[in-house]
Amino acid sequence: MPTFSAIIWFAFGLLIMRYVWKFGLGMLKSMTSTLPEPPPSGEMRRINVRYRCSVCGVEIRMVMAPDEDPPPPRHCLEDMDLVAPIE
Predict the structure, then answer these.
(1) Per-residue pLDDT of the chain (87 residues; tens, 9 = 90+)
(2) pTM of the full predicted structure?
(3) Per-residue exposure over 20-57, b if at least 16 CB sit within 10 Å of its own CB, e if not
(4) Burial of 16 by CB count in 10 Å (0-12 exposed, 13-18 middle, 19+ buried)?
(5) DSSP character for 25?
(6) CA dihedral of residues 11, 13, 14, 20 (deg, nearest 10)
(7) How far apart are CA 15 and CA 23, in angstroms?
(8) How far, in whole angstroms, is CA 16 from its chain's centroid?
(9) Kind of pairing, strands 59-65 and 45-52?
(10) Cβ contacts of residue 58 below 8 Å, gap of 6+?
């Protein structure tokens, strides 16, 4: 007759196996799904870039734009410099 601790370890192993199985199936399903279509032209897209004014040093972060690569905004009557895309 198995001891109580052996039954607990067996049940714990079954729970871990179920979690790994579900996680693996989820990963496989995510790799087979298709990417969504890009939004139509003129709709806002999510971006994440930072710009800095070369004259006064003010920085802005742009998070929405109509294009994935928008033109730089203007500040102090000059185009702002791209600092770095935020990952």
Answers:
(1) 678 889 999 999 999 999 999 999 999 988 888 877 776 767 788 888 899 998 898 888 888 887 777 888 888 888 888 887 665
(2) 0.49
(3) eeeeeeeeeeeeeeeeeeeeeeeeeeebebebbbeeee
(4) exposed
(5) H
(6) 150
(7) 12
(8) 28
(9) antiparallel
(10) 52, 75
